[in-house]
Structures are given as C-alpha cells and as structure tokens.
Amino acid sequence: MTEEEKAFLEREINRQYQWYNRGSKLWSAIHHWSLAVSALLSALATLVLKSEWIKTLVVTCRDDVAAGLAATATLVTTLAASGGFGRKWQANRRSRGRMDQVKIDFASPKADPQKIREDLKDIIREHDDSIIGTFTK
C-alpha cells in the first residue's frame, strides 16, 4: 500500500467514523428524549385531570391544559415515529461499530487496501439503506 493510499484511507476511515459517531449520539438523544417527553406529557395530562389539588388550583382551564398536554404528547410520538429517530440511531450505531472493525483491519501491516475500500463502500451503502428504510444488496 502506497503512502498516498494509506493517507487517503486513514482520512476516510476517520471521517466516516466521526460522522457515524456524531449521528449515533445525536439520534440517540433525540430518540430517547422523544420517548421520555411523550411519556412525561401523557402522565402530566392524567395528573391534571385526576389530581384533586390541581382541580382546586386550575378549575377553569384544567380540561384545556390536559388536552394540550395529551395533544403535545401525541405530536411528539408521531414525529418520532415518522422521523424514524430510533431507526436512525440504530443505523448510526451499527455503522460506527463496523467502522471500528475497519480501523482494526486497517491497523494490520498486511491490510488489503482493496478490501478496506470495499468494506467502506458496503458500510456507506448499508447505512444509507438503513436510514431511508430500504435494504438492497
């Protein structure tokens, strides 16, 4: 493997790894945040409707507040599902793990640059397929 080839592959491996690592962290945060917020808003809507002490504090708009909380919880859940936040988090996590494997292979003095290139192309293709929800080979 020439020095130019090695430098290119090293840059590309690092670039792809950083991309998938950032994506994994971002989509994980968004996915788990949406699950937690949805559950919290739903629970708050129930509390607003059923808690006696809230009934005394918010007599006039209690039903409206509960409906707003429930609607917001539904909206967050719908956005999370339609946005595929969980799928995107998992795709980035898998791709980052595969890039770790490529890093290990690349570290070998006997690394085959063509195999590394093929592995990189496979990872990128499979990542794209996972994000858009299709799988091709």
What does this structure look like?
By secondary structure, the protein is an all-alpha fold. It is 86% helix and 0% strand. The protein contains five helices and no strands. The two termini are 28 Å apart.
Percent in helix: over 70%
What is the rounded distance between the termini?
28 Å
**Element order: H for helix, E for strand:** HHHHH
Principal-axis shape equals rod-shaped
Oligomerization status of the protein chains: single chain
Total E-strand runs: 0
- Characterize the largest beta sheet: strand count, sense, and whether it forms a barrel: none
Mean pLDDT score: 90
Backbone structural class = mainly alpha
Round the Cα radius of gyration to an integer and report it.
Answer: 23 Å
Strand content: under 5%
Catalogue the unreliable spans.
none
**DSSP helix count?**
5
Please describe the structure with a list of short key phrases separated by commas or semicolons.
single chain; 137 residues; mainly alpha; 86% helix; 0% strand; rod-shaped
